[in-house]
From TrEMBL:
This is Succinate dehydrogenase cytochrome b subunit. InterPro entries: Cytochrome_b-558 (IPR011138), SQR/QFR_C/D (IPR034804). It comes from Marivirga aurantiaca. It comes from the Bacteria. GO terms for cellular component: membrane. The keyword Transcription does not apply. The lineage of its organism: Bacteria, Pseudomonadati, Bacteroidota, Cytophagia, Cytophagales.
Length: 225
């Protein structure tokens, strides 16, 4: 097990873990967004409730979910460790050199962006995941827990929708740097492929958060009518 200890204690190993967990979470975002689109089905929540029942009762999905929780926690821990080590390695702020000239705003503020996303996750999990797993939700006409009722109530609150959208903007900036950075840390660097990875990463960082943000906005507008 010495190789594992070496990986967890080396800077390269930590960056490798950050990259792998980050890419796993990127795949999860795509799957999660595709499921969330069920909220927009004009069927009173039937499709979404059936989807959530499948995702919480299927043994394979349940196993993957535990892996997801572990990877989220590991990603957070590694980010904190790397941030602290980078700070301690550069204790003096040099006035003659402005590192921002060679880096994006997102790359210089990944800690802040990550904190915004973490706060959002805590609120999001408490309001929806916790209620689905442990709350006393009513059942819909098909006998499924009516999570759609809770979601639609939350997305009829303008302040919750505003918070959701702001956090998705934070996610967009986080992904705009993290996507390409993950591949770079894995050694995927080539004059032919790297430009495509960066462009695809920017597109991904726009489309996925935009999709997440659009759902509560649309549901809020529908609730007004």
């Amino acid at each position: 097990m010495s190789w594992l200890a070496d990986t967890l204690t080396s800077s390269i190993g930590r960056k490798l873990i950050m990259s792998l967990t980050g890419l796993f979470l990127i795949v999860f975002l795509v799957v999660h967004l595709s499921g969330n689109f069920q909220l927009l089905a004009n069927d009173g929540g039937e499709s979404f409730n059936a989807y959530t029942k499948f995702m919480t009762t299927n043994p394979l999905i349940a196993t993957i979910s535990y892996g997801l929780y572990f990877f989220i926690l590991l990603h957070i821990i590694m980010s904190i460790v790397l941030y602290r080590r980078n700070r301690s390695a550069r204790p003096i702020t040099y006035k003659k050199y402005d590192g921002s000239a060679n880096s994006s705003w997102a790359s210089r503020n990944m800690g802040i962006l990550g904190t915004v996303i973490l706060i959002f996750l805590v609120i999001h999990l408490r309001n929806f995941w916790y209620e689905m797993k442990f709350g006393s939700l009513p059942l819909d006409e098909f006998g499924n827990k009516d999570l759609y009722l809770i979601v639609s109530q939350a997305f009829s609150d303008v302040w919750y929708v505003a918070l959701y959208v702001v956090c998705m903007i934070g996610l967009a900036f986080h992904l705009s740097h993290g996507f390409a950075s993950a591949f770079a840390s894995l050694g995927v660097s080539h004059n032919k492929y790297t430009p495509f990875i960066k462009k695809f990463g920017i597109a991904f960082a726009i489309i996925i958060p935009l999709g997440f943000a659009a759902i509560p906005v649309i549901m809020f507008i529908n609730s007004l009518g």
